[in-house]
Predict the 3D structure of the following.
Amino acid sequence: MVEEKSALPQQALQAASQTQVSDPAANWATGSATASLKWHGNIYKMFSSIFDRQIHVHPTHLASTLLLDLMRQQRYGVEYQPIVELKSQEIMGHEALARFYSADCQPLAPKMVFNALHRSPLSLYQVEFDIKRLQLENAPGSGTLFVNLDPDAYAVTADEADEPLLTLLSHHNSMVVEIIEDTDVSDAHLSQQLVRALAARGICLALDDIGAPNSVISLDVMMKVDWFKFDRSWLARAHNSRARAALLHLIAFAHECGGKVILEGVEHEHDLALARALGVDCVQGFLYRDHFISIAKTQPRMRTA
Ligand SMILES: [Ca+2]
Ligand SMILES: [Ca+2]
């Protein structure tokens, strides 16, 4: 599946948690452009991370005018986070994460944007399509590309002959689609339909955020996925004997089914040691933030104030 692996410098595997990570978007907002911001075609490319936890969370809700401006101007970005194979300590692929910005270059919490877009399925579909196209166009040259797909976006064209979103995804030659099953996405039939549609196109599937709060586990989906992504919350829970037993058995199940396991949220050396002890295949998280790649579609407009 992996075309070509890129070596990860040894120091990237050392804990980097003591260093404060700059937020490029915040730098745009304050007018201090980052040195690592590079013009790349019609894309701004940055080689430092935008922490989810640092993304501005609007106190109430996103106004429709803000969302319309976001869509019209395509104030979109992508953050590619490396997925590291434990055995070889090499980057085997990247997960592409959607990023959004307001007109004054403030990063917007992606979950909040997607939640708001759920009120308008066609808009949700259009944004998902444009974001996926951006993620594919700027994907790192080698390795597997992991993208997140909202089943509700897929639902818009699920019963039609033409499914542009899935057709777009099938253009990448090493693609894994991550789906989440949670209590907000309660339509099990839709998940099943999506699983079949991806399989028909030869696209690999990952079950994302296993064990996260509000997540549910569908045995039907679990038995069909190629990748199992365990939520960061297991890092804290793994010291509890029952939780660790559940995790070890789920990992064993994944391996017995021929699947591969990724542990997310790896931030410290002791997380990496735990990942090794658990026998997972790959890890992902802020331990590798020096290798995060961020791009922005539109030229950031500096704030004058
Ligand atoms: Ca994901
Ligand atoms: Ca995840």
Residues 121-137 form the longest helix (17 residues).
